[in-house]
């Protein structure tokens, strides 16, 4: 039985430990269910711990502060109505501000952790996680790659440097990334090798050509001959999918009509500073 304080249900049969596999990549074509799945995962993250397997919401004593970047200005961006100010970005300038703040909080958390014994981490100390969700990575990264002015180049450099820093240092601090994109390969989407290598969870939603699955999971992973529908995905989880095969699963059914009320409850406890040194006793 998985008794982790940081357990996110991927299906009724298995889960993702968001503290151990701190960064996640979620791929799939438009309409495959990846964004709606991310909202359900966000509910669980924001209301940790979740001990009742029958409920989406946890008890909220270890809530995860959520930050988002959504250049489409769609469902993920609407969380700005529920989150504290300056947590949601819909353009390059706002994205750099959100990333910079997130990165600064991470380094402050690392300083707090260093006051504890050698080898301490946020999860060992039962500290809340912090998560940044980037929707439609391909379009977002392309926006930063365009433009040749000095200002464009400065934003591009800061974007790449901040993503790299968070990817490399986030695990010990409990600061994670969820990257959502139609393609999540280095070649096709511009995702850096650092993000790919540090991803402990990789999901691909919906039916696709084998070449697309290979771009997501790599050539060494075996892909079952299973056709996926909307809301169904293959999962690779670091330390779990050790057989060489990805796991096919159907995400839990989400109540679309009630999701906003659920999100409102889940995001009731959000604070930038309070949870940096908070520990669950």
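^ structure tokens above, recovered residues below v
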């Amino acid at each position: 039985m998985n008794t982790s304080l940081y357990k996110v249900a991927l299906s009724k049969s298995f889960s993702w430990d968001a503290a151990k596999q701190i960064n996640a990549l979620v791929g799939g074509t438009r309409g495959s269910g990846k964004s709606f799945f991310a909202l359900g995962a966000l509910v669980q993250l924001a209301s940790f711990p979740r001990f009742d397997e029958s409920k989406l919401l946890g008890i909220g004593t270890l809530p995860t502060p959520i930050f988002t970047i959504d250049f489409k200005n769609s469902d993920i961006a609407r969380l700005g109505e529920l989150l504290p100010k300056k947590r949601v970005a819909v353009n390059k300038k706002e994205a750099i501000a959100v990333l910079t703040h997130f990165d600064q909080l991470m380094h402050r958390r690392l300083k707090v952790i260093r006051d504890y014994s050698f080898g301490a981490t946020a999860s060992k100390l039962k500290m809340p996680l912090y998560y940044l969700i980037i929707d439609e990575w391909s379009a977002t990264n392309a926006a930063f790659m365009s433009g040749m002015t000095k200002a464009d180049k400065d934003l591009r450099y800061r974007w790449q440097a901040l993503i790299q820093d968070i990817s490399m240092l986030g695990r010990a601090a409990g600061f994670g990334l969820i990257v959502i994109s139609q393609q999540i390969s280095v070649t096709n989407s511009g995702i850096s090798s650092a993000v790919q290598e540090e991803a402990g969870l990789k999901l691909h939603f919906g039916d696709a050509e084998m070449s697309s699955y290979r771009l997501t999971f790599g050539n060494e992973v075996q892909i079952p001959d299973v056709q996926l529908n909307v809301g169904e995905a293959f999962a690779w989880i670091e330390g779990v999918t050790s057989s060489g095969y990805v796991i096919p699963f159907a995400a839990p059914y989400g109540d679309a009509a009630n999701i906003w009320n659920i999100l409102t409850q889940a995001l009731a406890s959000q604070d930038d500073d309070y949870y940096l040194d908070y520990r669950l006793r």
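The chain has one domain: 7-273.
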